[in-house]
Structures are given as C-alpha cells and as structure tokens.
C-alpha cells in the first residue's frame, strides 16, 4: 500500500484502508487486516480506538478478533479522536495502534488507520509489508495458550487534554482572562468527547453544536465552507467570538469568524504557524497543495519552508528530517511535534485560543487580516475508479507543456502569481483540483478551466 490503489473496491493509501460499509468493507476483510497488522508487529500490545460511525461497533468486533488471534493484548480506548488514540499509544509505548475511522469521508464509509510503535505512522516499507501479509494470508496465528486479550482504558481523553494543556505555549491564565465565547461543531463525530471539555478548561463560554457522539452526521464529515451553514448561523445568532468545526475523527480543525464567515481550511495551519513562530524560530513543513500563505509566514519569520507530497506521513518524515517546529496540510490538519507526530485538531483549538488571547483585543477577522491572503479554490471531480484517475492524470501530464510543471504529487502548474494542483485522492475515487491566486475570480477560473480539461480527458478515457 505504498501508493493509493483499489483492492476489491477498498481504497488503500498511505492513510490506511477505507471502503463503503455493506459492500466493499466487510467484517472478514477487517479481521484479515487486523491479523495482518498483529502479525506485522509480532503480537505486541495494540491500542484500538474508533470514531463515532454507526459501523464502528461492527468493525471493532471484527478487528478485535484479528488482533486477539495473533496474540495481541488490545488496550481498547473506545470512541476517541484519531490523535487521542495515537497519543495514548505514545504514552503507553504500545507496539502499535489501530484507529477505526474514515476520517472526513462520507457517513457510509469506514476504515482503519494503522500506526506503528508509540503512535508513529507506518513507514513505506511497513505499509508494503502489511499488504504482503494481508494478501498472502500468512498470519502469525497464536496457539490456544498464547491468545491475546482485551483491556478497557477510559483515560485516553484525560491523557490528551493533559498533554495539550502542558504544551509550553498554552497559558490558561491568559485564555481564561480572555474568556471567548465559542461555538464548536463536531459534526457528531469523535471530537464531541473532548473538544467542548478542552474549550471549557481554557475558560471559554461554549455553545455545543452537533456534539452528540452518535455517528449520525448532520452535515458532511468534511468541514468544507459549504458544510458549515449551521455553524455560521449559530455564531451569528449567539454573537460568539468564533466557531470551530472538526472532521469525523477530529484531526482537522477549521474556523468560522465572529462575523459568521467560514474561513478557508488553509487558515488553521497558517495561523498556528504564525502563532508558534512568534515563540520559537524553526523550519516548517507543508504539502505541495498548501497555501502560499505559509511561504509568507516563513519569510516573515526568516525560517525555511519545506514542501512534501500530500499526506501526513510525508509531512512527518520531512519534519523529523529537518527538525521542524510545526507542519501540516491545508486541509486544517496541523502537527505539533512536542506533543506527537500526527495532525491534531484538539491541539489546534488550544493554539488558536491562545493566539487570540495574545492578540487581544483583535477579533478573528482582524488577526486573519494581518496575514497576506490569497484566494483558494478547491474542487473535486468524481471518477468511476482510482484506475480511471491514474489514466486521466497521466493524460493531463502529457497535455500540459508548461516549463514549470511540478510532478512531486500529481500535476502542479506554477506561475508567478498563481498555481493549480491536480492530484488523485488517496482516500476517495475523486481527482482533486486546488488552485490559488490573488483574487477569488482568478482562482475559480483556473480551477474551472482545469476541471473542463480533465472532463474532456475523462471522455477520451471512457470512449
Ligand atoms: Mg481526519
């Protein structure tokens, strides 16, 4: 699973495995993946957690069977955000962790994210090995006297809260004195079990919106600006200072201003980077499709920005290589290395609340206005399969003859004042088109003309 591939309609990528429940993702496959993982880590202790999806209990039982059968002691942390599960793995120095989640995918999806020892994301060679074991069915099954076990642990949320609050850039006396009023929309996902608590601990007046962790998502799990109408309306009607929204497993965070305007997800990383670089100088790492705002933030602080292909694993590898102080993606996922090497939407809440406390009396809009802005357009083109996406992308590479074509991840066309990146999603059968320019009209035009080109290439594929 070094690259995203379809496997009997399952989507296997650097993030793990995902599929639609009731068709592609069935219990026997989940058990096989869990057995392959238990074999990979040699039957060591494993932390298991899940998001709130209604298919979670099914997947949970299937996965426990596979892990117990390979002799793993399972420490079951229940419903938790992905970063909460991985931090627990770090705290307990576990041999691996397995999160049952489809992150921001639609409600009918579920899947597994795998991490190696202490919550570290799997390396490329570990991913390849996992798939080899899965495909061969050569599992290290335990005999009757070496079966694994399950232990429940309800301390993961406390552990994560304590970890975030102990970061040296959080000052609770300041956030409490500032006392913001915040609407938090967890989309009834895993953030529901922790984010309202964190905000109250930071001294915020909290209005909970969609914070019932029952897996019935009242809005798309991906918190794109058009999915946040209810949050925007609530920020206005409550006269709140800002709004926060997570994706299904709360490793991402996006913001809504005090005016009830959804901010591009790019702002989460840009603001967090600006905040942290005010405190400590160091390199930052972003993906190829993350906003030019990060270049400006890096230049302003005199630090270096490194770019990687899209995917948290690539960002983490580069962060460790260059000793970065912060890294992330334009999707609203930010990595705080002093806490852990994974995107953490909970830590992002603390960073933004602290930044606003230190920026008092500025509002969110005023803080945002202090960062040079670009307009970003994000579109996606649905494709019948990931194979089609591969063919269309290859045709696109042949179609464009620009001198500055960047093929680090998909196709990125770069001009002096704008860029457009076309790439295959690793987690859904879609081709993503992101563009950035100085005005929204220019960004949209670039996105739309690229989509038109892709659609005509797709027609060539289907003919
Ligand atoms: Mg996620």
List keywords for this structure.
four-stranded mixed β-sheet; 20 strands; 15 helices; 463 residues; alpha/beta; eight-stranded mixed β-sheet; binds magnesium ion
Write the layout of secondary structure elements.
Layout: E1 5-7, E2 10-13, E3 16-20, H1 27-40, E4 46-50, H2 56-69, E5 73-79, H3 82-92, E6 96-100, E7 109-115, H4 124-136, E8 149-152, H5 156-165, H6 172-178, E9 181-185, H7 195-201, E10 205-209, H8 229-237, E11 242-246, E12 253-256, H9 266-277, E13 284-287, H10 293-301, E14 305-308, H11 312-322, E15 326-328, E16 334-335, H12 345-358, H13 364-369, E17 375-382, H14 386-399, E18 411-414, E19 419-424, E20 430-437, H15 440-462
Structure in words:
With 463 residues, the chain is α/β, with parallel strands linked by helices. 38% of the residues lie in helices and 21% in strands. It has 15 helices and 20 strands. An eight-stranded mixed beta sheet has the order 1-2-3-7-6-4-5-8, sandwiched between helices. Helix 2 links the parallel strand 4 (46-50) and strand 5. Residues 1-7 have low confidence and may be disordered. Bound molecules: magnesium ion. Magnesium ion binds at residues 103-104, 247, 249, 251-252.
**Ligand species:** magnesium ion
- Indicate the percent of residues in helices: 25-40%
Q: Which ranges are low-confidence, i.e. pLDDT below 50, for 5 or more consecutive residues?
A: 1-7
Query: What is the makeup of the main sheet?
Result: 8 strands, mixed
Terminal Cα separation, in Å? 30 Å
Number of strands: 20
Computed CA radius of gyration, to the nearest angstrom: 21 Å
Count of helical stretches? 15
Shape: globular
Q: Which band does the percent of strand residues land in?
A: 15-25%
Q: How would you state the average pLDDT, rounded?
A: 94
Give the strand order of the largest sheet, numbering strands 1, 2, ... along the chain. 1-2-3-7-6-4-5-8
Structural class by helix and strand composition: alpha/beta
